TrEMBL record:
Protein name: Thiosulfate/3-mercaptopyruvate sulfurtransferase
All copies of domain Rhodanese, residue ranges: 68-178, 208-328
UniProt keyword Cytoplasm, yes or no: no
A Pfam entry, by short name: Rhodanese
SUPFAM superfamilies: Rhodanese/Cell cycle control phosphatase
Record's keyword annotation contains Lyase: no
Source taxon at top rank: Bacteria
One annotated GO molecular function: transferase activity
Keywords assigned: Pyruvate, Repeat, Transferase
SMART domains (alphabetical): RHOD (SM00450)
Matches recorded under PROSITE patterns: RHODANESE_3
Segment forming the signal sequence: none
Length: 348
């Protein structure tokens, strides 16, 4: 069972109807960082598994020699319909379903719960971790990126995402097993990294700050206020936010980040080059519940090496429920009409 996307703000354990993601704008890291494109860390370099470093993004072919030396987290939801004796597990991987990383409505789990969960998976600061997701569509990458971000926030640094997820593992002929691996729990104590996380209070304090750029990772209709996540109180976006659809990083619609040259072209596009004054020194990525936004955070911070990038995990569901100011909020009559249209479309 597939468990998540960011387009609803739902209880994470439920399967979701997939939506077509509309392409948005791309971000010019060159302008934001005052650096030439050549100075950005290319995807190929980031993914290279050399020495003791896996890199934030790894290809299945590069992962093969690491098998047995890394902790592999299979974040797919268990398939209750698969035959009990089917070799459907990634050999050596620990089952760590994405739903266990998130709370109701996409909320963060309390730190004690996350700590207990990480310990049960045998994670520690010394063992490299590779995260493997569904790998079927761009939004699936968000699940892997959100788990990666959570572990970074908890203080773990030796992390990587398998580009392409489970399908890439299978296509590469990596081994499968009939059961997930069992591990000895760890005693890891989180050392929270505040540099990767922005709270509601911090975002509120930065509204209007010319040095802070708020990045809306959702498809354009969310940004414009045409639609909203069911768990959000109102449609719209953060005041002064810019639209940067997460799907722009996946031009072929797959769950794989493209090659270095393509990623560099995407990063060099966008409206940021026309911004007046000094380039912002901080970026806050957000969406509905911090799922799609994790993709923007991961690409900008971990792959391209842009400093000052944070994720706002509560995103628009938390913000709208707090009754705080928003941009692109339609009038009450327009909101009611949109609700009626939605109800009509959902009626058999």
């Amino acid at each position: 069972m597939k468990a998540i996307s960011d387009n609803t703000g739902m209880d994470i354990g439920f399967s979701l109807r997939r939506r077509t993601v509309l392409a948005g704008w791309a971000l010019s890291v060159v302008m934001l960082g005052h650096a030439p494109a050549a100075s950005l860390r290319p995807v190929g370099e980031a993914a290279a598994a050399t020495g003791s470093n896996l890199g934030p993004l790894i290809e299945a072919s590069a992962l093969r020699p690491w098998l047995g030396r890394v902790r592999i987290l299979d974040i797919r939801e268990p398939d209750d319909e698969a035959p009990a004796d089917a070799a459907r597990w990634l050999a050596g991987a620990v089952s760590a379903p994405y739903s266990r990383w998130r709370g109701p409505l996409g909320e963060e789990r309390p730190l004690p719960e996350l700590t207990a969960w990480v310990r049960s998976l045998g994670l520690d600061a010394q063992t490299p971790v590779v995260i493997v997701g569904d790998g079927e569509e761009a939004s699936d990458f968000g699940a892997a990126a959100r788990v990666y971000w959570t572990l970074r926030w908890l203080g773990l640094r030796r992390l990587a995402i398998l580009n392409g997820g489970a399908p890439a593992w299978i296509d590469a002929g990596l081994p499968l097993a009939r059961q997930p691996a069992t591990v000895t729990p760890s005693t890891y104590t989180p050392r929270l990294d505040a540099s990767v996380r922005a709270s509601l209070e911090e975002v509120r304090a930065r509204l209007g700050d010319p040095q802070t750029l708020l990045l809306d990772a959702r498809p354009a209709p969310f940004y414009r206020g045409a639609i909203k996540a069911p768990a959000a109180r109102r449609p719209g976006t953060l005041p002064g936010a810019q639209s940067f659809d997460h799907a722009q990083w996946f031009p072929d619609g797959s769950a794989r980040l493209p090659d270095a040259a393509t990623l560099a072209r995407i990063a060099a596009q966008g409206p940021w080059q026309a911004r007046a004054g000094a380039a912002p020194t901080r970026m806050v990525s957000f969406c509905n519940t911090g799922h799609w936004a994790a993709i923007n955070w991961f690409v900008l911070s971990e792959v391209l090496g842009q400093s000052g990038v944070q994720l706002y995990p509560g995103s628009m569901v938390e913000w709208s429920r707090a009754g705080l100011p928003m941009d692109h909020v339609p009038g009450r009559a327009e909101q009611l009409w949109a609700q009626l249209r939605t109800l009509w479309r959902s009626t058999p």
